[in-house]
Design a protein that fits this description.
3-stranded antiparallel sheet; single chain; Amino acid/polyamine transporter I; globular; mainly alpha; 20 helices; 2% strand; 594 residues
Length: 594
């Protein structure tokens, strides 16, 4: 056995093992010359037919959706509008219940004994510093959305805030609802999906996919087809979600740029922005998590701190401090009523149109958004969280980002409300173009307004690059697992997503992008049931964790060479297992090889 000096572990759990050069390829000693990726594979080897469906069907369905929206935009928008009305009118209660389930499960994971379980086995240690970890999970989870809504939502909710009475302090209710929509509950919804994926992958050796985190709770006969369906939903939601967000990011970046540069927004400018952001994302995806995503995410965090501190110092500081104190108290006072509010007073008769419902505009819309984006956000968070205990993971993914969100919204939102009270300009700009609200406010900051507009514009670009980068990693895992995806494959995925965004904007314009994004978000409704099933499976796995399970976690995360490594290819997949008499491409029950 080699000494510790004979191997080196990188940030994705890959251990390069030094051993005798004379070992033959199929001998146990050959394990000493191989690169072992931890955790060792204990998942399902996907049949060729299933793999073909997973790789071929999503592009076909995505192309069909894009064609349908661009050829008949009015018909597509009308259909999606009816679906949105159906979901809002009949299932607001379900989204409220789902959000409560997410918060409740996160609380259970923290206070129960399972919180001590370490992702990656008892000897695993975090691969990233806390600053890098928080930067990456925040950038992929919410950065671009918070840039967009941190001021737009408080401004748009100045006059209508259920649960929270309208008092003498204008905008208080809007700030509190923004804390709620982008804070603890939203992060708990991401966290509960991420911890399901993380435990399944790092501790049980499954691939980092929804199918492997979900289907083994189902009857054996249903597991294979259910796995295909679950993976198709995850892939399609990821591609369309990233593509439409790409389109909106291009428009918001342009909104910021036109404030500092002498040109006007146009489809040509949007196309140039998409191509530029796509190229930067492709470079980041090619370089990998440590050299690309990590560095850009840390830059995001630094620029975000600069932006918030500058608005606080040069803006209405006393008002910001007073409003922050008051609205924080109001948030904690109204958190439970907001969490349970399902707009029951509007359900006495069928809902004619989703626009008649407050929740249809806000809570249902945002919760659907979070669910639809969960595949890639949670997948990436799970990927970068090896080595942390479940308790540390849950607290880190929920509490810290929620506090960051509240401080961000309190500073940016309070400054915007203060300036809007004086002129009304921000409300007018937000009504004309929601993405312009932040830039309108920043221009009003004395002395450094123009500089802050530039910083915010750069943040739009870098936050979206990190979102697309993290989404590309998750998507590559969904498509290629159990094979490992290479950097060029991730570059191709970036190019494909950018192409969808480019086609939507150039052919269908803003309405096409909005229609596809709304359709994707409505797709969060059926996907929420998949996530609930996955949560139940996680609870079952953790509650039935035995001595054999703990030994499995140790074995598959052992960095030292093992005889089984000689039977695996470069992706860690068994070429042939003499215990089972199976070869590559065979559908193997995970219990049979664990």
């Amino acid at each position: 056995m080699p000494t510790p000096e004979n191997h080196e572990t990188d940030a994705v759990g890959t251990t390069t093992l030094a051993g005798p050069a004379t070992a033959t390829e199929d001998s146990p000693a050959a394990a000493n010359t191989r690169t072992v990726t931890l955790p060792r594979f204990r998942g399902r080897i996907i049949p060729t037919l299933d793999r073909t469906i997973i790789m071929v069907l999503p592009p076909v369905l995505i192309i069909a959706a894009v064609v349908a929206v661009t050829v008949n935009p009015e018909g597509a928008a009308a259909l999606i509008g009816r679906l949105r009305t159906f979901v809002t009118g009949g299932f607001t209660w379900w989204f409220v219940a789902y959000s409560l389930i997410a918060v409740g499960v996160c609380a259970w994971l923290c206070i129960s004994r399972v919180g001590k379980v370490r992702l990656g086995g008892p000897k695993a240690r975090p691969e990233h510093s806390n600053f890098a970890w928080y930067s990456m999970l925040f950038a992929c989870g919410q950065g671009i959305g918070l840039i967009f809504w941190s001021l737009a939502e408080p401004i748009m909710l100045r006059e209508e805030t259920p649960v929270i009475p309208t008092g003498a302090n204008p905008g208080e209710g809007g700030l509190v609802w923004t804390y709620f929509h982008w804070g603890l509950t939203a992060w708990a919804m991401y966290c509960v999906v991420a911890v399901c994926l993380a435990y399944s992958h790092h501790n049980l050796g499954k691939t980092l996919t929804f199918r492997e985190a979900t289907v083994d709770i189902l009857p054996k006969r249903a597991q294979r087809p259910a796995g295909v369906v679950v993976e198709l939903l995850a892939i399609i939601a990821t591609v369309l979600g990233l593509a439409t967000s790409f389109g909106f990011a291009a428009m918001q970046f342009t909104s910021g740029a036109v404030n500092a540069l002498p040109f006007e927004a146009s489809p040509l400018v949007w196309a140039i922005v998409i191509i530029a952001l796509g190229l930067l994302t492709a470079v980041s995806a090619f370089l990998g998590v440590n050299k690309g995503m990590k560095r850009i995410s840390e830059t995001n965090s630094i620029l975000s701190i600069v932006l918030v501190v500058a608005v606080f110092v040069f803006g209405p500081t006393v008002y910001i401090l007073s409003n922050m104190t008051q609205t924080f108290g109001s948030f904690f006072q109204h958190f439970i009523p907001m969490s349970f509010w399902a707009e029951a007073e509007g359900t006495g008769a069928p809902l004619a149109d989703w626009q008649d419902s407050w929740s249809g505009w806000w809570t249902v819309f945002i919760w659907c958004w979070v669910i639809a984006f969960s595949p890639f956000v949670a997948g990436f968070i799970a990927r970068i969280s090896r080595g942390r205990t479940i308790r540390e993971f849950v607290l880190g993914v929920t509490i810290i980002p929620s506090l960051i969100v509240m401080v961000w919204v309190a500073v940016i939102g309070s400054a915007g409300i203060h300036y809007d009270n004086e002129s009304g300009q921000i409300s007018a700009d937000a009504a004309a173009d929601t993405s312009s609200a932040l830039f309108s406010m920043l221009e009003m900051v004395p002395w450094i307004g123009t500089l802050l507009v530039i910083v915010a514009t750069v943040l739009v670009a870098t936050y979206y690059i990190t979102s697309l980068d993290s989404g590309t990693y998750a998507l590559a895992e969904f498509v290629s697992a159990p094979k490992k995806s290479g950097p060029w494959f991730r570059v191709v995925l970036v190019a494909s997503i950018a192409t969808v965004a480019l086609v939507l904007l150039s052919i269908g314009g803003v309405n096409a992008v909005d229609t596809v994004q709304t359709g994707t978000i409505i797709g969060g409704f059926p996907f929420s049931f998949v996530i609930v099933l996955m949560i139940i499976n996680l609870i079952r796995r953790l509650r039935s964790r035995t001595a054999a399970t703990r030994q499995l976690e140790k074995d598959i995360n052992d960095p030292e060479p093992r005889a089984e490594d000689a039977l695996c290819d470069e992706d860690g997949i068994p070429r042939h297992d003499p215990r089972l008499g199976v070869g590559p491409g065979t559908y193997v029950d995970p219990q049979d090889i664990s």
